[in-house]
Amino acid sequence: MRACPERLTVGKESNGSLLFFILLLLTCQLAYPQAAGSSAAESRIAAPPPSFHLPENQKLVYSVEWHMLNAGMATILITHSNSGEHLRSTADTSGMTNKIYPVHDTFDAEIDPRSFCTHSIAKHNEEGSRRLDRKVRFDYQAAKSQVDDYDLKAGKQKHAKYDIPTCVSDVVTGFFYASSLDLASKSTYMFPINDGGKTTDVRIEVEGRTKIKVPAGEFESIRVKAEPVSGPMKGKGVLWVWFSDDAKRIPVQMKSKLGFATLLFQLQRIDTQGHQPTWELPGRSDALASIDRGTNGGAVGQRGRAAL
Known about the structure:
15-stranded antiparallel sheet, 15 strands, disordered C terminus
């Protein structure tokens, strides 16, 4: 998925695949609410309301396009753990992209659902000829992250510490927190995100509402624009996220621009991991049935592209 120079540069700075850079920008939804049009002077993460619950045992499956070509698949799954919630995300290239630059990555995070603070991260990256592992522990009392990097191919190990604020999210969990926020039109937010290196502040703006069609179905959606405003990702790219405009706020489509490169993520289906779904796709009983069966892979929705 890092087939252009701009992507390669970004990937090295974030110590992860291009997919995880896009998912990093997805977490722009994590911002602490500011008044519409405000300067969003304070960057922090606020605890979700008591009524909010993470969607356990529901695997989101996304197709990934790079310049109209099928680049691969990405998944996200949250399950209950002894420490709270465990998130696992995967990224796998396919087709021509896999021949040019194969990517097979996993990302694991332990999350406190009461605060949405991430407590630890484990990453495994297989990208081209690289084989890298990263383990991160966030010590909020000491205001430090403990980072251990392992170059599996070269047999090298590196340890580092970084300053962190009182609570950060990781590069994937953030948009789940977004579903607990009031995404009113034209409102702006800012929050800190960290995957082991320096902390990045991300600013978002809710641009408006629109109807969108993706392989999983047709949705009334909320479109959000996200940009890093500090840290190593500042000025590197822009992301748009379309959330279903209902109580579940499913991220149904994401579009990123990095230099001249564009990536498009679209929701293909939701696998319920042996459990019945706890929500319904708005206005699409046929789409819900196909999701229950784990089917409806299909071609990328044309109306989704038209909404870009």
